[in-house]
Design a protein that fits this description.
single chain; Spore Coat Polysaccharide Biosynthesis Protein SpsA, Chain A; globular; 31% helix; alpha/beta
């Protein structure tokens, strides 16, 4: 059975310029993700799916066991919808099991990725495994509360157990990804991650905070051990 981890990277990020390849501590987000995935024994391949020639050059020069797929520009543009993008990822990836691993989640541990893969393989009742974060916020939509009664407001810890996809890891069969045009299936099983693993870099502030955490949690620890 083929199990491929796919790292999606595109040029032209609108909110955080070149976030996947710019300096991040002593590395960059793409290489940090590749190094984590190389520690996941269940994987049979790692694929960087990108329209970035720079990314392809780095992979070909330094990571000979990692594959690249040169993405067509449409699928890296804002004209491409999320559903079109996900379906295309499935169509161009040679695998049976698809493991979605964006490098904007830099703190997901190899052990967590292994856990999600093995949970998927041992759980036939579910068609995907996805990491999520617990949401304990007072939510409103269109001027109305979504998850609590303002006249009987609970303590935040007693709010309903709402979860949000954080896209740290998603495991799905390739055929289901293509059929649903989404990495999330019809019968998902969720795996909660802690606050650090759940970090998703989407804004300049996210990038700054994540880099400071990386320096504190990884680089300083490394210096102490040397």
């Amino acid at each position: 059975m083929k199990i491929a981890a796919v790292i999606p990277i595109r040029t032209g990020s609108q909110r955080v310029k070149d976030k996947n390849l710019r300096s991040f501590g002593n590395t960059n987000l793409m290489e940090l993700k590749i190094k984590a995935l190389l520690q996941v024994p269940e994987l049979t391949s790692i694929v960087v799916n990108t329209n970035s020639e720079e990314a392809i050059g780095i992979v070909n020069k330094h990571y000979h066991g990692v594959k690249t797929h040169r993405r067509e520009e449409f699928y890296a543009s804002s004209q491409c919808s999320g559903s079109e993008f996900f379906r295309h990822l499935g169509e161009v990836t040679d695998t049976d099991i698809f493991v979605y691993c964006p490098c904007t989640s830099p703190f997901v541990k190899p052990e967590t990725i292994s856990r999600c893969i093995n949970l998927y393989l041992s759980s036939p009742d579910y068609d995907c495994i996805a990491t999520v974060s617990s949401v304990k916020d007072f939510l409103w939509l269109d001027g109305k509360p979504m998850n609590y009664d303002p006249s009987h407001a609970p303590n935040s810890q007693d709010l309903p157990d709402v979860v949000a996809l954080n896209f740290g890891v998603t495991v799905v069969r390739k055929e289901d990804l293509i059929r649903n045009s989404n990495i999330i299936g019809k019968r998902p099983q969720f795996v909660k991650t802690d606050d650090i693993e759940a970090i998703d870099i989407d804004t300049p502030l996210d990038f700054y905070i994540a880099e400071q955490l990386y320096k504190k949690l990884v680089l300083e620890k490394k210096d102490l051990l040397e």
